[in-house]
Amino acid sequence: MRRRPAPPLALVLVLVAALAAGGCGDGEDDARSAEPAGVLSVDQIEDILLPVGATVGDATVNRKAGINFIDDRRASPESCQPLSSIIKLEPHPVHSDRVEASPRWFSPYGDVQVLTYADDDAAKVFAAVDRAIDDCANGFAAELIRRYVVLDVVRDTAPALGDEALAFRLRTHEIDEEEPIDEHEYRVLVRDGQHLLSWRTAGLEDDGAVEARALLAAFVDAQWQRYAERG
User: Fold this and answer.
1) Mean pLDDT of the chain
2) CA 41, 43, 48, 52 torsion: positive or negative?
3) How many helices (H) and strands (E) does the chain have?
4) Residue 88 burial by CB count (10 A; 0-12/13-18/19+): exposed, middle or buried?
5) Cis peptide before 93, with omega less than 30 degrees from 0?
6) pLDDT below 50 — which residues of the chain?
7) How many other C-beta atoms lie within 10 A of the C-beta of residue 178?
8) Considering just the CA atoms, what is the radius of gyration of the chain in Å?
9) Which residues pair with 55 in a beta bridge?
10) In whole angstroms, what is the distance from residue 62 CA to residue 212 CA?
11) How far apart are CA 108 and CA 11, in angstroms?
């Protein structure tokens, strides 16, 4: 029986070095390299969002909420889902995070989400929201712990930000209340390349609506400035 000759020692050392370099990277580096090109990292999104304690009009950024229970809102019909929760839409973001802002009292309040997508997925989500504003203008039902009804959806003037932007408002109240109180919700959605910034403010009754609009304007200005100045 013939024996195969042993490889030269130098060749063995080269092979071992190549395997160590190519196959033994740490998991963090592997995960990072596997992410789609152009997306924001988790740390980048955290740096972009307004910091806790920052003031927005009369409100204060009071906590970093991450994935909020509000993301579980479900619309009926399903075609109106883009107006209930962006993060539940397909395609899903690669990363997303949010902060909230509120004054000393409950109303008005608001939040902003930064979402980053692969390829042209951000444009697809933006288009879905844009279509739903008109398709669901006469209202729809939704559910989050309790059932509520969106009475109407009205398009607003969008700010001149990013590659494309839209704005709209909803008037809602809970179905199960004997004398439902209208909640006025205002939204702005901006797409900038592969990223979306989604603002939402809400206030109760007519006075709350005025305050919610003012909070939205201050929130958009403050958060967009921080986003535009990112490194």
Assistant:
1) 85
2) positive
3) 5, 10
4) middle
5) no
6) 1-25
7) 4
8) 24
9) 60
10) 17
11) 70
Tokens of 98: 């949010």
**CA–CA–CA angle 116, 121, 123 (5° rounding):** 95
Tell me which DSSP letter residue 70 carries. G
Residue type, 193: G
Closest CA to 57 of 216, 226, 225, 202: 216
**Interior CA angle at 67 toward 199 and 47, to 5°?**
65
CA 96 to CA 41: how far, in whole Å?
A: 9
Type of residue at 48: I
**What pTM, to 2 d.p., does this model score?**
0.83
N- to C-terminal Cα separation, the chain: 67
Residue 99: half-sphere exposure toward Cβ, Cα within 13 Å: 24
Q: What's the pLDDT score for residue 105?
A: 67
Q: What's the CA gap between 184 and 46, in Å, rounded?
A: 28
Q: Write the CB contacts of 190 (distance below 8 Å, at least 6 apart in sequence).
A: 159, 161, 162, 164, 165, 196, 197, 198, 224
Residue pLDDT, tens place only, 41-62:
999 999 999 999 999 988 999 8
Q: Hey, what are 88's tokens?
A: 């539940």
Tens-place pLDDT, residues 185-197: 999 999 999 999 9
